[in-house]
Write a structure and sequence with these properties.
Layout: E1 2-9, E2 14-20, E3 25-31, H1 41-58, E4 65-73, H2 79-97, E5 102-105, H3 107-116, E6 121-126, E7 130-135, E8 141-145, H4 157-172, H5 180-189, H6 196-201, H7 208-213, H8 215-223, H9 227-248, E9 258-262, H10 264-268, H11 270-283, E10 288-291, H12 298-311
Parallel strand pairs: 1-4, 4-5, 6-9, 9-10
Antiparallel strand pairs: 1-2, 2-3, 6-7, 7-8
Helix pairs in contact: 1-2, 3-12, 4-8, 4-9, 5-8, 8-9, 9-11
Amino acid sequence: MKVYLGLDGGGTKTDAAAVDSQGSVLVRFAGGPSNPHGATFDKAVMELDKTIRGLLSSLPHKDIQLEGICLGMSGIDTSEERFLISSAVSRTLADESGDIPVAVASEGQISLMAALGQEFGVQIISGTGSICYACAPDGSHWRTGGWGHHLGDEGSGYSIGLRALKAVMRSFDGVQPPTLITDIILEEYGFARITDLKSYIYQPERGKADIAGFAKACLKASSGGDACAIQIVTEEAEALTDTAAALLKRLPAKLGSRVVLTGSIFGHSPLFGRTLRGKLLDRFPSLDFVDGTSAPPPSVGAALLARKWFGGPDTENNNDRRK
C-alpha cells in the first residue's frame, strides 16, 4: 500500500495524518507544539520526530510503502528554516523507512488544499496565531500577518486570551466593570479567587498556547452577552480584517474573489466570523467566503499535497513547490 504523510505543525499542537493512494485517510496522530519560534528549534524537531514515529506506529497496515511527506509548518518562512526542518525529518524517516521525499509547505497551502482541493487561493487563519495568506497557481504567494505573538497575531487566540486576562484583572481592580469572563475562568480553571491567575500565569512552563487557551473563556462570555468580551472579540476581528484587507489589495482580481476562513476562533465564535465577514464585505463587496472550519483538518490537506506532489500524474510539474 502506498502511503503519504502530512503534518500540521503549530504553536499549540502538531497534527499528523496519513492517506492512501486514493486520498482516503488511514490514521491521524496528535503531538505537542512544533513551531520553532514558540519554543526552540531543537524542541520543535524533537516533537516532529515523536509525532512522525507515533503516526507510523499507528498505521493499521504494516505492509506499506511511504511515498512522501509534506510538512505544513507555522513560523517557517526562510529557505534555511525549511532546509533544516526537512533535513531533520529526513533523518527520522531514514530510520523508519529509508530515503523518503520531504516537502515543506506553508500552513496556508495545506489549509487551502484541505478546504478547496487545491493549494492556491486566499486564506484567513485565526487559531493560536493568525495569518492571511494567498497563493497563485504559478507558485506566486503573498502574506500579511503571521509575525508571532510578540510582533503581531492580531485576531488570534493568543491576542484574545491575553486581552481577556488583562480585562479580568482590571475588573478585579475596579478599573472597569465586572465581566462574565472572570466567573468562567474561575469555574473552568478551579481557582479559589481570580488573583490566583498571577501565580498560574507566571509559572516558568507557561507559554503561548496557555495564554491562547483563555480565549475560550472570552468567546464563551461573548456568547453570553458580556459587554467586555463582545468588545474584545469584535475589536480583534476588526484588527484581523485590516490585515486581510491589506493582503486583498495586493492580489490579482481573480485570485482574491474567494476567501477561506479557518482556525479555531472562526470555529468557536460566530460573532468573530460575522464581524470579519461584514467588515471585509464593506471594502470588497464581491467576496465569496468559504467555511474552512468544516473542511478536513490541515494535516489531511498536507498529506493530500504529498500525494499530489509525489504520487500524482503532475508530480514533475510541481517540483518548484517542494523547495
